[in-house]
Specification:
106 residues, mainly alpha
């Protein structure tokens, strides 16, 4: 009996899923219609309410109805951060190679 009681209330972590932009837009559209709450739409499609709210907020930002970074700006920022990290790594490698060869030529 103890094992049943011990496992009650613990939710298994949900595997991370990805959704197409079209699916997200459809869900946002359903939320905007106003027939159902965000929570109800999330429940009807077996989604987390947090994710659906984030999609609705991002759609409002993209439409200029809310302050924040648009999806395109977020994408560009992520790309620039990746590029910046790669360039820093390249500079670090070159710095170490320069130090190595400077030592070798003495």
């Amino acid at each position: 009996m103890m094992s049943v009681m011990g496992s009650m209330g613990k939710k298994k972590p949900r595997p991370r899923r990805s959704f197409t932009p079209e699916f997200k837009a459809e869900i946002v559209g359903l939320c905007r219609q106003g027939d159902r709450s965000v929570g109800q739409v999330a429940k009807d499609f077996d989604l987390t309410e947090t994710a659906v709210r984030a999609w609705v907020n991002q759609a409002q930002t993209d439409a200029g109805e809310r302050d924040g970074l648009t999806s395109d700006e977020r994408e560009e920022l992520a790309r620039l951060r990746r590029e910046n990290r790669r360039l820093r790594e390249d500079v670090d490698i070159l710095r170490r190679a320069t130090a190595f060869f400077a030592k070798e030529t003495r």
